[in-house]
# Entry
Amino acid sequence: MKKTRKAFVCMVALSLACLFGVSAVYADNPEGKTYFTRANIWFENPQKILSTNYHKGAILPVGTKVKIDRYSRNKIKFTVVDKGPTCTFIHVRKHSTIDLQAFFDRYFSQENPMASGGVFHTFTKDEQENIKNGTIAAGMHRDAVLMAYGYPPSHRTPVLSSDFFTYWLDRFRKVMVTFKDDRILNVR
# Structure
């Protein structure tokens, strides 16, 4: 009888977590913890940063230290440490084929990519400059592009090893990035 009750309690807790938007699948809930951004994040309104990754407005730079305030069904609310704004990343499901946990892991890390010995320092000086400016150029490595430009919406670029990335400047204009041997061949 005790095993049945315990299973029932777990099932109810899981159902309530899903109902109220709490991530029951994220093994190590990130709420209250400090992370660093792994890629540049564009936004016009910090309270409504869409996972679609439109390239307009301000940039929250890679390596920004943030505290995760809330992690729910389709939102990640975080505060920039020591600088202020509270931001909300909205995981737009119709533009994404990945779940919130995979999305979180793309954009947040407990390791600072900009720190000495971090991944940023594996790129060439030109790639580092492009990452800092949020720009991309022919010859850049795929990983530098992801850090500089963020992740393309997965409904248009479902596989990151693809030779083509589709980014959106806004709702109507796109940027197509073509790779050859993991380096940008052209941008149009």
Notes: Residues 25-187 form one domain. Residues 2-19 form the longest helix (18 residues). The radius of gyration is 18 Å.
